[in-house]
Amino acid sequence: MQLAIAARIARRELRGGLRGFWVFLACLALGVGAIAAVGSVRASIEAGLAREGAVILGGDAQVSFTYRFADTAERAWLEARAARLSEIVDFRSMAVVGAGADAERALTQVKGVDGNWPLVGTPRFDPDMPVDAVFDAPSGLPGAAMDRVLMDRLGLAPGDTFRLGVQDFELTAAIVSEPDAGAAGFGFGPRTLVRTEALEGSALLGAGTLFDSRYRLLLPPGADPDALGADLRAAFPDSGARVRDSRRGAPGIEFFVDRIGAFLVLVGLAGLAVGGVGVSAAVRAYLERKTETIAILKTLGASGGTIFLVYLMQIGALTAVGVAAGLVLGGLAPVLLAPVLEARLPVPAVFTLHPAPLAEAALYGVLTALLFTLWPLARTEEVRAAALFRGIDGSSRALPRPVYLAATAALLGALVGAAAWLSGVALLALASAAAIVVALAVLVAAAWAVRRAARGASRLRAVRGRTALRLALGAIGGPREEATSVILSLGLGLTVLAAVGQVESNLRAAIERDLPDRAPAYFFVDIQTDQLPGFLDRLGGDSGVSNVDTAPMLRGIVTRINDRPAAEVAAGHWILRGDRGVTYAAAPPDGTVLTAGAWWPEDYNGPPLVSFSDEIARDLGLGVGDTLTVNILGREITAEIANLRVVDFTTAGIGFIMAMNPGALQAAPHTHIATVYATPDAEAAILRDLAGQFPNITAVPVREAIDRAAQALSGVAAATAWAAGATLLTGFIVLIGAAAAGERARVFEAAVLKTLGATRGRILASFALRSVLLGAAAGSVAIVGGGLAGWGVMTFVMDASFRFEPVSAIAIVVGGVLATLLAGLAFALRPLSARPARVLRDQD
Predict the structure, then answer these.
(1) Which of 566, 390, 490, 518 shows the shortest CA–CA distance to 772?
(2) Among 424, 444, 479, where does a domain finish?
(3) pLDDT of residue 820
């Protein structure tokens, strides 16, 4: 009965329209729309990767080996299980045009293919030609195709000749697209495509050189990819082979998209929290306007529970409208922008309506709306009819009944739990939720402190005679909650933006300022042991070279930890994703800092020992005496951890997670790597001389690699900034709503001041000063909160140093002042133009 009566009253009240609820609807629609859009784009990419998985991978399954090709037995085993088999080899090298001092060189990622490539998909070239024609050059030299950017860098056109190692190739075409480009992962240089057999005379694929071989398989109908991997490991347990199937054709891209998408969803949740402040303020303002209605209902015998249900139903209906608008916005935006997004994405995507992210966004929206409206709704139940006739006291601090407090806690737990479960990064979600809750609490405390400070400042002798300033301070410190609404809504949005700005500026500083001062000029790989003396002789006599570091280089896959499968001990840890660099040394390199254990004697010749990274050991719970099993070139080596040491990768110098005693690795085929620290004017001569003397050696320009990392960072920073911008926009809408809600009070205030003799200019100045002071307070709180958040991200997530960046901080304060000033002035015109007599008569 009570429910039916409440539903009838709620329905009749809603016939009056949605006046006063545009802030409520806008906040919900923006928050839900942002989360739905991010989730839809992520789901579209995942659907594209699933649909085109075989094309991206280059087959139904792929088996990879590090620094070697499959031996005869392994290849026969693969051929017996594949309908078709294709062999790929991938490595870095230098593409050289010309000879002597006039030679041009550029780093390239070389891909060698066989006659079966591609098993799936079709590559495109310019000029358009079949695959076989690309590799059969008219001159009789081996043919090759290049990325257009590499051709432009070297000044090449089809028909020109270039070298890889000591082998000449004729450029026949530019690469327009590779069907399996997404499976290659990150490359240090643009692509060059050749036949593998043409590399036999290049001196680039010798013993110990750095390359990966990949065997793509088209499986017979009904074949089980999981069984393929299990059978391969059983047949060749020491091969070190890695198996991937088309269900995860590009795991690196999937991982990146998943993590960035999850992070953006969490930023969107911060925006929804900002919107929640607006939702709460809109509900309070709405209930204040319904004072007479509630009073009449109470007088006619309606219980507090009935009144609560009436307005809960109304809010529920409006929530449905706001969530639906957000779903339409977030669901349709990626579909409508599909041509633009597809042109920018490096992977296929299926842009359509995806139910799962829309349902997730709807869940967040409903939980947020309930969380932020339950408290003001519950407080109406506790107010008596006599008090309601005098108007709802918005500053009441009476707590709702315990049942509503418990319901609020349950809603908060459900929202945080949903974010932790659905985002895929539970710890980040929990940390973000805790940060948002703390930020809201800090902002509420800051608002209270600002009101107290303003109230005290308005009584100071120094402000006497400054009427506009005194009026502004008195209004801020008064009983109305304008200061709290402004600082909460704008402060949280600016805090998110400030945190993003601090993280972005610190990352850019680490890449653009700190690293170049310490980083080497070149990173040389594939130096043969007999080439090392000549390599060092050339650099030793160069006055522009300040330092050269070298180390033997192998790569291995961690397969077991303390004789248990590594995937069981360290599931999900990045050290297991692919192979890792391994070196050997009789004595600790200069600058080595041991944190536990001791280095082995220089003449040690016992069982294998390993020096391991201290940081990773802590992650895995390892210490001195534990064992690691590493597969190197198909051989399993089990070594005891002799010591732990600090490994610093921030210098871009040589750093190995694992270093073994020489007896464990010295006999294995391997090459050496070197870092060369030199002045910029010496770099060109170093590259020319070493590349000319040792054409098989590959030089990686470190500054160029840093630039590529900076470009990738720019994309992530841009996406994050856009998400933070959406949060700030929501905060600005809430701010406008707060200004609009306070317009009626300002009309009365202006009428009283005019009656007392205040001019319009002085009243406008007091309104402007009020806005400026509140904006400055919100911006100042945001600087502190954003700085702390930025420090936390850089210190605990990025594991990097933090330096406060003042430019973005100043911009935050200026932005906060301007935002509140514009919102305040926009709603100052009606109070200034209202006639005092009419306003005061309406109060009778």
Answers:
(1) 490
(2) 424
(3) 78
